[in-house]
Amino acid sequence: MRLTKSTDIALRIVMRLAVAGPANPTTRDVAEVMGVQYTHAAKVVAQLQHLGVVEARRGRGGGLALTAEGRAGSIGGLVRRLEGVGDVVDCEGDVPCPLAAACRLRHALRRAQEAFYASLDPLRVEDLVADPTGPVLLTLGQK
Predict the structure, then answer these.
(1) 8 Å CB contact between 76 and 117
(2) For residues 142 and 138, what is the distance between their CA atoms, to the nearest angstrom?
(3) CA–centroid distance for 42 within its chain
């Protein structure tokens, strides 16, 4: 299974915010440190804000911060919400698969997809930023 680029960026942003400490970096700061185009980061931050994972404040003393839900939520749950509901393959697409009525592959892929998410369910943000990842995240962007 392959995650969308937006989900990848979202997870990296969440990880970076988890180690930000009292300083609230801006979207531009996080984009630069994580090697992501600002426009992509801004869209992802807006989505994370909509999901209640990130809080964004404008003005002096503003910036990005993880919410309590963002810190405590399941990574599997977050990835599900970011990726949306759908099968790994599109059997009913523009040209429907001729095997759709009797296919066993679709069900096997659905089980594999759920196993993938289930393996992420017990993980929290703190698990992703434990040593050695957290200290590396803190060094990114230092000059």
Answers:
(1) yes
(2) 8
(3) 14
